[in-house]
UniProtKB/TrEMBL annotation, chain A:
Coiled coil: none annotated. Residues 17-161 form the CheW-like domain. The lineage of its organism: Bacteria, Pseudomonadati, Pseudomonadota, Gammaproteobacteria, Pseudomonadales. This is Chemotaxis protein CheW. Transmembrane segments: none annotated. Pfam families: CheW (PF01584). SMART domains: CheW. InterPro entries: CheW (IPR039315), CheW-like_dom_sf (IPR036061), CheW-lke_dom (IPR002545).
From TrEMBL, chain B:
Its EC number is 2.7.13.3. PROSITE patterns: CHEW, HIS_KIN, HPT. It comes from Pseudomonas asuensis. The chain crosses the membrane at residues 687-713. It catalyses: ATP + protein L-histidine = ADP + protein N-phospho-L-histidine. The modification Phosphohistidine is found at H46. This is Chemotaxis protein CheA. It comes from the Bacteria.
Length: 186, 727
């Protein structure tokens, strides 16, 4: 990551603070720029899409549009989060090759919208973080707690996700390996 | 209105007209004297010229003008179409297409590529040979308008000619003819005047209060006929006032008539509109026409006899009238609609269907009989609306097919083979988006057939075939797919050679036994070059793998049949529409999936005996009335982890002649579905065809049967090739 993250974050107008939505995943607090948040909805009526990477939970019907939903914890390499009554889906909008893409992310709980002073945002440490460094836009401290500002376009990179299912044979094998093959070998 | 929008319409229209012109030119080879076809060609050229003039595209106007002049001579019977002329006009078509494409790309016509410019000059010179000298000069003039101006300044007779015979009582009525002449000077200039005195009697018989004089006046003015006539308003009743327009005006009138909007006008109205006739003259003529003793002459004749209008102007008007009628019949009742608006409508209808399904579900749950009934009626209507909305997007494939007449004609000349294209099933309809994308693959296939398929005439005669080769294009519907066939009566494919080549390339192993069909379809594999197969013209028109890729992108399939020495048939199978389908709902685990209904053949129960027997034998097929039916367990494919139900069902699907069974938990019946596109993330998932939203609001997945079967076949084929490599 470049060291001048703070300047990169600064908009041309020179505003010193940016509104961020903070939420909790597996006890850790993350933040995303409110500009890419479309809405927050209750978790529910999710349709599982088979033969996809595990972090893709499925799709939901968002007022007539089919929106894919991603499990953030699984995307970071962990296991899928168990749903609770506070589980939410945050609908984000990202730009992928100039096309707006709408994707939902599953979070354990949504906390609040905060003004984060940009001068307090530090670049991601080169190592030591649990998640891939290119997912991190910066790190800041709120109430003595580290908050990771997510790089939404990287976390929800359409081309990267689509690439994970590019080979039908691996996708098929991926799907059937878990149940079909052990049974067949009997 | 934005000029760019209008220009776009012009470009689209011109391209359409050029297509019509090309079609007509190809037809004219068979009937060189058919006036309808000649008129169609002329009309196309004429309209393009006219519209191009509106946009100031002078290069197109002047170029088309030459072509039009030649066409005019053909139309008038001075010459006839022959092969050279047809070929020349096909080139004219191409040139116009290139020019219009240049405009479309935003280029200026003043800075054409040298090649295009050279071609234009060459064609113009060529065309000029068919014109008499005087016309050729006219053609060279950049704009028609300047032409008209020049004519009027060159000719001496550019003044209005007024022939005035004032009535004998005009003085008694208090009017002085001289006053009228003076009045004329207020809006023009009397260039010359001749006083007619032959009616003046001898002095003693003369009544000083009677007018005996007539005048012939040459009058120069900018005013129109109506104004001039207005000057004589008070004496019109008992005088003979004739107003002859200058010669240049005649040309103007004719041009105006040609530029009148395409409305169904009466002859008289038309003449009044362009100013050749005034309203009062028309009324007078009509009155005359309706006089009981007058012979029932047409209004045109009456007007000419009365010397109100020149015969040329009437002829032009009559021609225009006919043209309007012709166009009307040709256009039928077509309306041009923006494709986006249509898409929006279809999207809305999609939403309507989803909402309707939800309502129906709610009605059924409520159990109110009346409500259930009315929602039933509603959903039937919605279904009808859907069907008719979808047909709006449907176009006949004939237009696309006809385009290939030209390809076949050109390629056969190039190859020196005599090949004819036969077209059938041109009225088969399919979605416009599909039509647009099918052109390239078809061109590939047709070129291939002509180049590699059809033998030279000598070989054909030797084999007892007619010297003329035939390429056939056929289209028909088959269970909500459209099938397009490209066939030829050529040499067919050599099985052994393909197989040898494939083994050489490592596409198949020596000991693999393949059916004929499998061997033929090898030529669609990437990297399979047919270069060895043909010595002549190798390396062009090949790329069968590209054909296959294009068709697969449209969710279609392609396969090939061939009999050596008899011919080859390539079959392309495409979905009819990409928007809405009738689906069959199935349940696997907790999830609901949709299979396109037209692929479902039947549903049978999978008994637990059969199921376990299949598991025992490690082969996934069951006995369907004596046939082995391979099946896919969707539970396993989709890695559903919960316990299977006691009873499973098999949905027998059929796609492109392949039969397969899908083992599912539940059969849930038919459902009309709107296909929502997969979106980039899921694009690579071949088992999926799209999403849809159920009445309950949940998303269901539409299974892509060919994709799923293809992926599984590949997966199972992969280990076997791996084994052969090892051995």
């Amino acid at each position: 990551m470049s060291t001048d993250v703070t300047t990169a974050l600064l908009p041309s107008s020179g505003e010193a603070e940016r509104q961020h939505l903070t939420f909790v995943v597996k006890g850790e607090t993350f933040a995303v720029d409110t500009l890419c948040v479309r809405e927050i909805i209750e978790y529910g009526q999710l349709t599982v899409v088979p033969l996809m990477p595990a972090f893709i939970c499925g799709v939901i019907n968002l007022r007539g549009a089919v929106v894919p939903v991603i499990d953030l914890e699984a995307r970071f390499g962990g296991v899928r989060t168990a749903t609770t009554s506070r589980t939410c889906v945050v609908i984000l909008e990202t730009q992928d090759e100039e096309q707006p893409q709408v994707i939902g992310i599953v979070v354990d709980a949504v906390s609040e919208v905060l003004e984060i002073p940009l001068e307090q945002v530090r670049p991601a440490p080169a190592f030591g973080s649990r998640i891939r460094t290119d997912f991190i836009q910066g790190i800041t401290k709120i109430n003595d707690e580290f908050v990771v500002l997510l790089n939404v376009s990287q976390v929800l990179s359409i081309s990267e996700i689509a690439g994970l299912v590019s080979n039908p044979q691996t996708a098929m094998a991926f799907g059937s390996a878990r149940t079909a093959l052990p049974q067949r070998s009997l | 209105m934005n000029i760019d929008d209008v220009l776009k319409i012009f470009i689209a229209e011109s391209q359409e007209l050029l297509q019509q012109m090309e079609d007509a030119l190809l037809q004219i080879e068979q009937n060189p004297h058919d006036p309808d076809i000649i008129n169609a060609i002329f009309r196309a050229a004429h309209t393009i010229k006219g519209s191009a003039g509106l946009f100031g595209l002078d290069a197109i106007v002047s170029f088309t003008h030459v072509a039009e002049s030649v066409l005019d001579r053909i139309r008038s019977g001075e010459m006839a179409f022959n092969d050279t002329l047809t070929a020349l006009f096909l080139q004219v078509c191409d040139q116009l297409n290139a020019l219009i494409a240049h405009v479309d790309a935003g280029g200026s016509l003043d800075e054409l590529e040298p090649a295009l410019q050279k071609q234009g000059v060459a064609l113009t010179t060529n065309l000029s040979h068919y014109l008499s000298g005087e016309l050729a000069v006219a053609a060279a003039a950049p704009q028609r308008a300047t032409q008209v101006v020049r004519e009027s300044s060159d000719t001496p007779n550019e003044h209005w000619h007024l022939s005035l015979r004032f009535g004998p009582d005009v003085l008694r009525n208090g009017m002085d003819p001289l006053a009228f002449l003076r009045y004329l000077n207020t809006f023009g200039q009397i260039v010359h005047i001749v006083t007619l005195t032959e009616h003046v009697p001898a002095a003693d018989e003369m009544d000083p209060e009677t007018n005996y004089l007539g005048f012939e006046v040459a009058f120069a003015t900018e005013a129109d006929k109506e104004t001039i006539e207005g000057a004589f308003e008070f004496v019109r009743e008992d005088s003979q006032i004739r107003i002859f327009p200058p010669n240049s005006k005649t040309v103007d009138y004719i041009q105006l008539i040609n530029e009148l909007p395409e409305e169904d006008l009466r002859l008289g109205e038309m003449l009044v509109r362009c100013g050749a006739l005034t309203q009062s003259e028309l009324e007078k003529a009509l009155l005359k026409q309706s006089e009981p003793e007058a012979s029932p002459a047409p209004i045109g004749e009456v007007l000419i006899n009365e010397q109100n209008v020149q015969p040329q102007v009437v002829t032009a008007a009559l021609q225009k009238q006919k043209q309007v009628k012709d166009n009307r019949t040709a256009e039928g009742n077509l309306i041009r609609v923006d494709a986006n608006k249509l898409d929006q409508l279809i999207n809305l209808i999609g939403e309507l269907i989803i909402a309707g399904a939800g309502t129906q579900l709610a009605a059924q749950q409520s159990g109110a009989a009346q409500l259930v009934e009315s929602t039933g009626v509603l959903s039937r209507l919605v279904e009808e609306v859907r069907d008719s909305a979808l047909t709006l997007r449907m176009v006949q494939i004939g237009t696309t097919f006809n385009r290939f007449q030209r390809v076949v004609r050109d390629v056969s000349k190039e190859l020196g083979k005599d090949i004819v294209l036969e077209i059938s099933g041109g009225d088969t309809e399919l979605d416009k988006t599909v039509v647009e994308k099918i052109g390239d693959p078809l061109t590939h296939l047709i070129r291939n057939s002509m180049d590699h398929g059809i033998e030279p005439a000598s070989v054909r005669l030797e084999r007892g075939k007619p010297a003329q080769g035939t390429v056939r294009l056929n289209a028909y519907h088959e269970s909500s797919s459209i099938v397009i066939e490209v066939s030829d009566d050529g040499g067919g494919l050599n099985k052994d050679r393909i197989l040898r080549k494939a083994i050489e390339r490592g596409l198949v192993s020596d000991n693999q036994s393949l059916t004929d069909k499998e061997i033929f379809n090898l030529i669609f594999e990437p990297g399979f070059s047919t270069a060895d197969q043909v010595s002549s013209l190798s390396g062009r028109g090949v790329g069968m793998d590209v054909v296959k890729k294009n068709i697969t992108a449209l969710r279609g399939t392609v396969d090939l049949d061939s009999i050596e020495g008899v011919g080859t048939t390539t079959r392309i199978r495409l979905p009819l529409t990409l928007a809405i389908i009738d689906g069959f709902l199935i349940g696997v685990g907790k999830a609901t999936y949709v299979v396109p209904l037209d692929m479902v053949e039947e549903c049978i129960e999978l008994t637990s005996d059969q199921s376990s027997a299949a598991r025992q034998s490690t082969s996934d097929y069951i006995d369907l009335r004596g046939d082995a039916l391979p099946f896919i367990r969707l539970r396993e494919l989709f890695a559903v982890e919960d316990e299977p139900p006691r009873r499973e069902n098999v949905v027998v699907v059929n796609y492109a002649g392949n039969r397969a069974g899908l083992v599912v938990d539940q059969l849930m019946g038919e459902f009309q579905t709107v296909i929502k596109p997969l979106g980039k993330i899921f694009d690579n998932n071949r088992a999926l065809g799209g999403f849809t939203i159920l009445g309950s609001g949940a998303v269901a997945l539409i299974l892509s049967v060919p994709g799923m079967i293809g992926a599984i076949a590949q997966r199972q084929a992969a280990p076997s090739t791996a084994m052969t490599i090892n051995s």
